[in-house]
Every structure is written in C-alpha cells, then in structure tokens.
Amino acid sequence: MRWQGARGETAGMDLPTALYEPVDGGHLATALTIGPWDPRLQHAGPPAALLAREAESVSGIADGQTVRLAYDILGPVPVGPVAVSARVLRPGRRVELVEARLTAGDDRPLMRLTAWRVRSRNSEGTPEPAVPLPGPERSRPETADFFTTEVAYHRALEWRFASGSFNAPGPAAAWTRPLCALVDGEPMTPLQHLLVMTDAASGISAVLDWTTATFANVDLGLSLVRPPAGEWLGVDAATTIGPSGAGQCFADLYDATGRVGRSAQSLFVEPR
Fold first, then answer.
1. Between 51 and which of 80, 106, 113, 222 could a Cys-Cys bridge form, CB atoms 3.0 to 4.6 Å apart?
2. Residue 190 in 3-state DSSP?
3. HSE-up of residue 139 (Cα within 13 Å, Cβ side)
4. Domain 18-120+135-271 maps to which CATH number in 3.90.1150.10, 2.40.160.210, 3.40.50.2300, 2.120.10.80?
5. What confidence tens digit (pLDDT) does each residue in 17-32 have?
C-alpha cells in the first residue's frame, strides 16, 4: 500500500500498512518500527503501543480508562518477531493494575508496562484552557533527517510542527496523525497513537547532536486525565541534560480539544 505523506515525500514509496503483522504466537515488526540509533532495533514508541493494546485486552473493567502507564525499557527491541503477554496484578471493579511484557526469542522481557486503569463515569471535570499550540492546519510539515534508513519510524506518522524542529536542537511542539495501523487489519486507537508518538518527545526536543551523542530513554511514563480522542494528537516537549550523563524530557500531550496529560522520560547520555 502507498501512503501520501507530508509535502508528498512518500509519493511512490511502498510502505508497510502497519507497524506489526500478526504471526502465530506473536507479532512481526515491520520496517516502520526502525528507530534512529540502529536499523536493527525498534523505536520504543511502537512496542509501547503494542504493550498497551495487550494490557487493555486483559482488563476486567470493560468501560475503563487507562490513567497511568509506566514503561521500563530493559533492553533494545529487535526489528523482527516479538511476543507480548499481560496479566492483572490488582483486580477490581473500579480500579485495577495491569502488567504487560514484551519478549523476543526467549523469556527475558525487553520492555515492561504497568498500567493503572479506572472505571469511567460522567462527571464535571476541571475547566481546561484552550490548546496553547497552533493547530495542525497552521503547523509546518517536516520529516526527520537523522534516520539512517528511508523507511523507518518517522514514516509511521505525519508530523506537523507548531514550533521547533526535528532537525534543529531545542524544545519543540508537533501534531501527528497515523499513516498506518498498529497491528495489520486493525485501526490504530487514539491511545495507541498517543503512545507511538509520545516516545519521540525526547527526539523532537533533542539538545545534543545525533551524530556525536546518544541520549536513549530508559523509561517512559504517561499520566492522563482523560482518554485522547480524534485524528490529530499533539506533543509539546523540552529536554534538559544534566552535568553527569543523564537527562530528562517532559512533555504536555494534547488532542484537538485540550490537554490530555503529561509524559516523562529518563535519558542515558554518552558520546557515540
């Protein structure tokens, strides 16, 4: 299938239709999961979404919402077959804690998620201010220059920058919409889209040169006040590097109607 991306840069390019293809006992990662550090390894956004999908599949709260997701990245995830599993750690009719794990080739987990889910109900929420970013229609299409392969993670979403840039250092805010499915044959849900996007917060707001330093995140945490909705989701991110080889990236997360939550990433920094 061919996708038409921002500014037509994918015209004529054959791209996978999904980040993962279902196979017996698991999922096969496609080239759209390739990360920026090594073409053999996945960007953490797609497996984060795959784990959330698995966690929701075992939930005992049918009308629940996921309000906190805490990921530990225990090892690099290869581009290839992966397996995910999930279990309910703390069952409940109103509140539950779910754990999901991702493996590749053996039983050693490479990523782990714990997610708190709560029952949804209608209530009067706290008034939120309007989205402080120009909308996607007033934002600038852009493609990342630092991926080492033409078909990789940056082709899975359409990116439009309200401020900052993929290709220049400093804080950045961008809107995205999916250009593929998470799992072949299924529509990507807004929460899955949010997770595919949010792990890139430290990439769009990078303050170091990709060619001379690595600053991969060892975790990813999201706290949500409500489920995201709609086609376009936004991330407004800033990264700070400390003097001892570590950094943090914090981001506000939006849909078209307002802020849905915040994210945080811990970065391990060293020369390439």
1. 113
2. helix
3. 27
4. 2.40.160.210
5. 999 999 988 999 999 9
